[in-house]
Design brief:
Proliferating Cell Nuclear Antigen; 40% strand; alpha+beta; globular; 4 helices
Length: 260
């Protein structure tokens, strides 16, 4: 089992910092799925059995990493993947102190304990060579038999599929409303000129009652500056937000709450 990846493009480094920050605001720990094509950050809901996926964020290998090399638990078949659990908040804390990085390298190591080792190359004005900061984040490698617990939800039919307004605008509204109530209904605020995907809609309207706190947590995703933002609604059941920015795709699933 092996994994090494390196990011050198400044825009990709910034995007990586943003996605780690977003995930860390949703959960202290996360599952990292490593495949030959991509990295997938998975946040499960620890309060549900079986575990329900809350966040599914995909970083594609092509166009994002300068170097990417992995060998999974069984390179000969479909199980050529790695699933591990680690403290995403620790990674976010490490990266938050990095203002300018020349490169970020990640690799799996096992010196005194299994770890995701992060090497950050920083420019130096006082030395001929760049500085290298190395951090080891403890990990738990998940056995094959529980991989199926961490899968992307499958939704057969949505009531409404609509182009989402920019998240920064939604965030401004929710930040004001969260002082008034711990619950909020989607969609009550009117946004003009949003397109509706009628081909994937089963109804002409839908609404869902959500916990304001959880919605506000999700809206930190506005850091991504996504080029594509789509909102899927299953009335009185689920809001599924899909964000896309070049080599990054993020799915966030907010289940509805009962109205007291």
């Amino acid at each position: 089992m092996r994994f090494r990846a390196k990011i050198v493009d400044s825009s990709c480094i910034k995007q990586f910092l943003n996605i780690v920050t977003v995930v860390s605001k949703l959960s202290k720990s996360c599952i990292l799925r490593i495949t030959g094509d991509c990295l997938v950050f998975i946040v499960p809901d620890e309060n549900t059995i079986p575990r329900r996926t809350v966040l599914w964020a995909v970083l594609e290998q092509n166009g994002f990493f300068e170097h990417y090399d992995m060998v999974g638990v069984n390179a000969a078949d479909a199980n050529n993947e790695i699933f591990l659990e680690f403290n995403i908040s620790l990674l976010a804390s490490i990266l938050s102190n990095v203002k300018v990085a020349r490169s970020i390298k990640m690799k799996l190591t096992h010196k005194t304990f299994p770890a995701l080792t992060v090497e950050i190359e920083l420019p130096s004005q006082n030395y001929a060579e760049n500085q290298m900061c190395v951090h080891e984040i403890p990990i738990t490698v998940l056995p094959l038999q529980i991989w199926r617990e961490y899968k992307q939800p499958e939704i057969v039919e949505y009531d409404v599929v609509i182009e989402s307004p920019p998240l920064r605008k939604v965030k401004n509204i929710v930040d004001k409303l969260k002082q008034l109530s711990d619950k909020i209904t989607i969609i009550k605020t009117l946004f003009r000129n949003l397109s509706v995907d009628h081909n994937n809609c089963s109804k002409s309207s839908a609404n869902a009652l959500l916990e304001t706190k959880r919605l506000a947590q999700f809206l930190t995703c506005e850091l991504m500056h996504a080029g594509k933002e789509i909102c899927y609604i299953v009335s009185d059941n689920l809001i599924h937000w899909y964000l896309e920015q070049k080599t990054l795709q993020l799915h966030y699933y907010l289940t509805t709450t009962l109205d007291d």
